[in-house]
Amino acid sequence: MSSHILTFQCPDRAGIQAAVATLLFNHKAFLIEVTSHSATNGRFFSRSVFAGDQGAILNIEAIRRDFAELASKFDMEWELVDTSRKVRTVIAVSKFGHCLNDLLHRWQLGVLPVDIRAVVSNHPDMRALTEWHGLPYVHIPVTKETKAEAETAMMRVIEDHDAELLVLARYMQVLSDDLARKMSGRCINIHHSFLPSFKGAKPYHQAHERGVKIIGATAHYVTSDLDEGPIIEQDIERIDHKASPDDMVDIGRDIEARVLARAVRWHAEHRVLQNAGRTVVFR
Amino acid sequence: MSSHILTFQCPDRAGIQAAVATLLFNHKAFLIEVTSHSATNGRFFSRSVFAGDQGAILNIEAIRRDFAELASKFDMEWELVDTSRKVRTVIAVSKFGHCLNDLLHRWQLGVLPVDIRAVVSNHPDMRALTEWHGLPYVHIPVTKETKAEAETAMMRVIEDHDAELLVLARYMQVLSDDLARKMSGRCINIHHSFLPSFKGAKPYHQAHERGVKIIGATAHYVTSDLDEGPIIEQDIERIDHKASPDDMVDIGRDIEARVLARAVRWHAEHRVLQNAGRTVVFR
Amino acid sequence: MSSHILTFQCPDRAGIQAAVATLLFNHKAFLIEVTSHSATNGRFFSRSVFAGDQGAILNIEAIRRDFAELASKFDMEWELVDTSRKVRTVIAVSKFGHCLNDLLHRWQLGVLPVDIRAVVSNHPDMRALTEWHGLPYVHIPVTKETKAEAETAMMRVIEDHDAELLVLARYMQVLSDDLARKMSGRCINIHHSFLPSFKGAKPYHQAHERGVKIIGATAHYVTSDLDEGPIIEQDIERIDHKASPDDMVDIGRDIEARVLARAVRWHAEHRVLQNAGRTVVFR
Amino acid sequence: MSSHILTFQCPDRAGIQAAVATLLFNHKAFLIEVTSHSATNGRFFSRSVFAGDQGAILNIEAIRRDFAELASKFDMEWELVDTSRKVRTVIAVSKFGHCLNDLLHRWQLGVLPVDIRAVVSNHPDMRALTEWHGLPYVHIPVTKETKAEAETAMMRVIEDHDAELLVLARYMQVLSDDLARKMSGRCINIHHSFLPSFKGAKPYHQAHERGVKIIGATAHYVTSDLDEGPIIEQDIERIDHKASPDDMVDIGRDIEARVLARAVRWHAEHRVLQNAGRTVVFR
Fold first, then answer.
1. CATH superfamily, with its number, for domain C87-281
2. Which of B1, B30, B37, B282 should be substituted to probe chain A, the one whose Cβ sees the most A Cβ atoms within 10 Å?
């Protein structure tokens, strides 16, 4: 059955939900799922999934037109997408393949609703894994001198595939401000620590040094401020004094893979909206 | 600011949310929170919190009257309550006071929105704790011979206080079918195991015998079918081979207290709706 | 640096640890790790990792000879293995490849210390994945009529590879009592539920029907009593009323993969000892 | 049955465990529990619980004398205590009583093996709760001007009771360097955040601002470096976008209470040893 997802955010005021639900009802839509959130800063967020009521064929263009009018009245940012249209995605990776392997496996199983178009990497290591999954692997070596060209090359891959999402699956290069801005809200990074603890490099070594009893990973949107973008998901595992930094790296791999997979999935299902440096995640 | 909670469930169909949101908007209500759920068995569930828009005084009786009409059209079960009206509650306990202590402490802090009217018990042990909190303690001894009378006495306490909720906070007596039915949907029990594992008595000893690596507790509505009522909340802790049954009892105490507290709170905030032996919990 | 693992269990009494530590010290061994456990049923369990002190070359055969004598005195079951010798392993799978993919990926990363020799399956589906990892795939179809032959064929694969461990990575066939006995203590199964809840088939559907708020998976040694063998590891995820049985299957995949990987790893590191239907796991 | 706990740490080398186990065996001790840890920085840590073998009465003074000699040879820091001797404890609290209530309840249940001698506070609020538990409450108001005197008064309470442990159960005053040094290794604080994130004041507001998806609490030994002492225990809860700072405070209360209770218990059971700004916790 064909269905659509409508997401929006706007200043909170009375009548929004009545107006939206009534509009959809008048177009013979049946609401499969509705979630909303009134944030403490006065913004209202909503996500609806709908289909034609009792088999009715919806006139999506008419809904879109009418909704645009309503959106303008309520000052909404909004998006209306067909659930069968998967988000075109490029994955970037360096040498560590655990997140990539996990994403590709879920994608192959059909449980990660993205359309993976290519994998880019500054190293050749993940070529075999990627090509075995039938995907193109673009090796773009990066040196201090070629960083700008390398980014241009990466941006070309994104543009060639008209990619809507860039996933940094342990891509060990900091994006330039320019690329971060271009991909704003459409680039997800996995940071191998429980942010805001242990920003930057070698977080598990920092964590070992501090003697923490829990380690974690954080998936966040990339902004030009490194490791400071809006957090989408975090998870943790308990450790004890026996854990060496290497053990933490090992335990961390699992946390990173599952946190990134959840973040990518929620983004792809249009469950994540941004609010002033934070996220609303309609799970 | 005065606010109200509206909960309902009904057969799922198009137009419900439009109708409800429009009704509330027309009465000048501002929606603070709306959550809903379309269950796979074709039932629709919803919970809204609303207040007067921009300081408007709501005519709750008019809303109630209009909503009754709409409810009848959509075949709804519904409830409309003032958030400032706390659920009148009686707690039953036996000898183990950890759940009682936890509930009383939260109540005293003001974070458990119930109006505790009395504590009943088949043992005298918890009198001092209860009375120190300024609450009446009703000691109703139970023997095999006096079980029926004891239940009658307990029911009288419930009726005297016009209690809407009975919380079995480690009350080690099985309710009769009759009492279970009378209190249907308004009696919460904490079972000291991760149901449906280890029903019945001494679950931690059963768990130890089986060698499980995780133990848990379950808060559920009481039905005449012992330990089979709709589950409201569950939680767990990891254990290992070092845990004796006594250690499990000790660890279990914490799990039981927090699981029961959550279940009582969610019930008191009208977040729990029942669906065919299961619960919908709007957290 | 070469190191060895010594595990044993015996009736608990004074002097065991003094005798064992002294024996190893006299042979110039340096203890890298020692863990032990006195069970409530009067059994004592121990695991030591040791190497030559300050670069000394250990005479392992002499240690083995002397330990055999000590073991006989204390009535020990024991094992002394070289940490560099990986456990020869055969994996059995049916159609669901998430656990297999996870095990192969960890093995390839070098973080799962087993020597995988072959994958057997009653279905052809996982051939490409297996062979891409450079491992032989043995397709042994099973029908009601050919079950006995199929088991013989599977046993032959195990014997041909001199496999010490059989991992049932979502192998959807019940082993015969005979095979279960032959592989006693060397066959690990992943059950897709939080045992002892929901034994048998379709556990997630059972879990949905019961309305549980937490689902889990259990890795256990296989015995002739289905789903009743000693539990090695369990883990869980929280769910809510929105989770359909299919969502649970999806969430369950991750839990199963990580629970099985941990159990296989701990077994391969000789961290798991059995005690009367339960396990001691020296993590 | 009378039993003793022996803990020690020393430079790691061969023969330590043989020597210690043999010494205890020669004194007719039966080892109930032994755990040890070889840290990556070359230190060895151990904790043993022992009793007289088969009812033998141990000559603890002789053991102590012989162990002192051995300790000197291996350059050990060590402690030998009777398990029946509970750690004399003073608790400090300000206005928030959830941690205090939790500690007192566990102490009353007999599951927190400390000997609470007094509660000190810079506010009068927790007097009734404390005195109801039969404990003295010492109100020591603190102003900017009287901080030094107040600390002297607090130190006098500690000395009067010969207290070995000071628990800061949400005591909202920073200890002076001097007091921190005096109580080094014997003062446990609960910080209401997942350190090292969100040090200092109002951590839940900081956490809300940053949009984290998990909040936590940390129990640590107090050092003169605020919020930087060795971590004993941490725990967390998941939150989502719906959580306001007040909700986080509310959820945080439970985490704080259970994290602090665990840390105090482990300390009181002599399970916590310090290693270069970190802890070894023999759970």
1. Formyl transferase, N-terminal domain (3.40.50.170)
2. B30
